[in-house]
Amino acid sequence: MLWRRHTVYRDRSGGVVIRGEHVQRWISLAPSGRRDEILLRAGRILDGGTTAPARSETVVPLHSDTGELAAACRRLLAEVAVDAAPPASAAPGRTRRSGKPKRSGRKGKRMGLASWMIIACVVGVVALYAYSAATTGTR
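Structure (tokenized):
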């Protein structure tokens, strides 16, 4: 399921990018300028399929646990989603709401399997990067 809905690839600088076309967002993990840190960046995917510049970024220490890394990824993606949402007054002339309330079929479901798979993939990539940095740095 993850591989059908997300594209994972390496960018020019050696980082890893995960694109979610269905949510129009991307997140990347790349080495930062410091030794034991990783740079997380997130942004939107534009209508033509190109990526917009990063809207949010943060630096996370490599020795942080999985939960801390996942929380940083969720926070960045949430910030991008808030930035991409149109303001409430974006629809002029629409003052009346329809009689039927909109209902989501996902009532009560907080995170789906795909979200957990993305988090697991991100954690795996960070672990692989940390392992690679640790084995090549000792020689």
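The CA atoms of residues 35 and 133 lie 9 Å apart. The helical segments are 2-5, 66-84, 113-137.
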